[in-house]
């Protein structure tokens, strides 16, 4: 790979450091009685936002109390990000297009695994309700959306990447664009050699 591609990859990899300081995901709920909305921010190692208010509301419909202990991922997410930073810098130093492709494949697999993990958590959280809860609606679940919008009783629930999540998406897109550029450049070199 050329030097510019390698520098771009290094910048994209180092950009992942921002995920240590920015929330990755946001769950936002709004209802007539909460016109200002209720945010829950998911970081690499913690949850912030109006978690206490959300827990108070969820108690009435039998949902589990949200706590950081529910997320064993908080114990190792920082190491996964560090691994991707290290591999990205290794790609930049070596200039290996094959290693860049491996990096992209691992990024996609990790992203899919994260969404599946989030879906499973949301399913369990929204379906496994306390049968003695004050408010019960037969055959109704409260699973939050993975991405996008969902109506949950009188609440509109939204789920989408926060700033740190967008950093990951942008870094991956940049690396993919570099790989495509270098792959096309390699094909053009082979064509030129034939003539």
From TrEMBL:
The keyword Transmembrane belongs to this UniProt entry's keyword annotation: yes
Keyword Transmembrane helix annotated: yes
User: Which keywords has UniProt assigned to this entry?
Assistant: Membrane, Transmembrane, Transmembrane helix
Q: Where are the transmembrane segments?
A: 7-31, 74-93, 100-121, 158-181
* Record-given protein name: Copper chaperone NosL
Gene source species: Paraflavisolibacter caeni
